[in-house]
Amino acid sequence: MKQIRRLSALLLALLLALPLAACTGARDEAESAVYDQVMARFTGELEEGAVVKVLENDTAIELGYVDELIAAFNEAYRDQGISAERMNTDQYSDLASDGPYGYGPDVWYQANDIIMKYADNQHILPLPTRSMEDYDLIPQTAWDAYAVEMDGETFYCGIPINVQTGMLYYIESMLPDDWQSEWDINGNGVPDFFETYTALYAFSRDVQENGGKTEYGYLDELVDTYFMAGYLFTFGGYVFGDNDTNPEDIGFAAGDAAKGLYMVRQWATLMDNTEIIDKAFASAAYGYLAKGRMLCTVTTPDVRAMFLKEMVNNGWTEEEAENDLKMIPVPRLPVSGDLTADAWQDTIEQMDTLTTEVKMMGGMNGYGISAYTKCPNASLAFIEFAADYEQVVRRNEMCGITPARSDAAATVGEHDTAVQQIFSNLDAGLIDIMPAINEVGQIWTPAESFLVEVATDALNDNRGEPVLYDTQEKLQAGLERLCEQIHDAIFTLA
User: Which of 14, 158, 245, 279 is surrounded by the most beta carbons within 10 Å?
Assistant: First the structure.
């Protein structure tokens, strides 16, 4: 469980108005009084004529889900005198600077780190989660992504809707014709190259050297911190100490993180393609997969619809695309930290001893309410509507998200094993939710720059040019410098 951030200023005025507890026996009563006063704005009385301004993400807008959601809400609350309207994403404003002047949304859907950057200075409202019907249906790990603490009382500033993390995408018809005879040595019906990264590396090397249905086996943007962090986290790395609440302790170099980074460099060496250091690859990946340039890549579940769209643009029918596009958990990593140290067959036959599950970085998307809203009760009605079982299942159907609600995840998981796995990994602690403190904004640029440096170093090595990071020891030193750079960005340069 993540350590909950403490707010020294939150609700101070309210606390000053409370009588001091005379003894520990009065603690529960005092805490309840704090909670009740914090939630005083949520009376349950809908503000007559209120129009809730809702800011959603681009994907949900593009796929039509947001308009459907708002239409359903407006129909449900027609007789109660409130409604909602969608804001365009270009209407987004910085809540801290513009919120006091009445600009921006009442409700918005964002990743936890975006929502929670407004918590420290009270730009968002703690929410009355105790009375919400989905409270006990959402894992504590998900709630912790939105948690703040004051005087021993925990409050949540967001309602978790879905969990994000990296998944492996591939097109089934692009599998080699002989995979069942050549790449399923354990006979479990799963291609070996989707079970361990060692096998995927071997398969990708074979494709690049000998040809196949695709140009590459695995191809990816190797400079995206969000996805590459899994290589570091699996071997002991982390973002911040004290469960991502202490920015003084930057942990990208902790443990054996250099093992993971060494494998990122090995991938760069094998791929030998400048596209792996190009940020444009993230959006280009849809076409690369649909056109058969690569068999597989790693990205988040919520962009599945974008892959399907590109496949239809390249000749699939919608039904064919749905049946052909697969999304599965990422393969296991070798404990050696070397994609070539063991025979790939050994990593399949001795999976429990030679490999380990990947601990991926993840995000928790959900709804928050602006502290500057003039309609807190109508805003709460909207997010409770959007967070109910039917809407969360529908969001999955249209957008491919993994629900944070256990009942919705169970329903979707009956036909989607990927959702089962993501929800299970969340519960098992194999998804490290992005830190929700402001300082996390300082990690991305230095980390990406370092990943570019490492991947470029591998490309230079292929061309016989001088290199800097050809050993794990040198990569460890580079990670330590990265931690120093991030620390400087947070505490010296800011």
Answer: 158
Six-digit token string for 37: 């006063």
Q: How many CB atoms lie within 10 A of CB 117?
A: 21
* Overall size of the chain counted in residues: 494
Based on the domain organization, do 233 and 313 belong to the same domain? yes
Q: How far is CA 359 from CA 362, 435, 485, in A?
A: 9, 15, 24
Q: CA–CA separation, 405 vs 408, rounded Å?
A: 5
In whole angstroms, give the CA distance from residue 229 to residue 340: 21
d(CA 213, CA 254): 40
Phi, psi of 320 (to 5 degrees): -60, -45
Residue range 441-479, pLDDT digits in tens:
899 999 999 999 999 999 999 999 999 999 999 999 999
Residue 110 CB: number of other CB atoms within 10 A?
A: 22
Angle, helices 65-76/389-399, rounded to nearest 10 degrees: 160
Return the SS3 of 51.
strand
Residues 178 and 245 in one domain: yes
- If asked whether residues 370 and 355 sit together in one domain, one would say no
180-196 pLDDT, tens digit per residue, is 999 999 999 999 999 99
User: Is 27 part of any domain?
Assistant: no
Helical (H) or strand (E) element with 367: strand 360-369
Copy the structure tokens of residue 197: 């990264």
The answer to whether 418 and 404 are in contact (CB under 8 A) is no
173-224-4 Cα angle (round to 5): 115
Which residues, listed in sequence order, are joined to residue 250 by a DSSP beta bridge?
240
Name 385's bridge partners.
Answer: none
User: 423 — phi, psi (to 5°)?
Assistant: -65, -40
Residue 122 domain boundaries: 5-17+42-157+362-429
Q: List the end-to-end C-alpha distance of the chain, in Å, as a whole number.
A: 30
In a domain? residue 37:
no
Q: What domain count does the chain have?
A: 2
CA atoms within 13 A on the CB side of 446: 22
Give me the CATH number covering residue 130.
Answer: 3.40.190.10
* Residues 472 and 331 both lie in one domain: yes
The pTM of this model reads 0.84
Nearest to 437 by CA among 207, 239, 220: 239
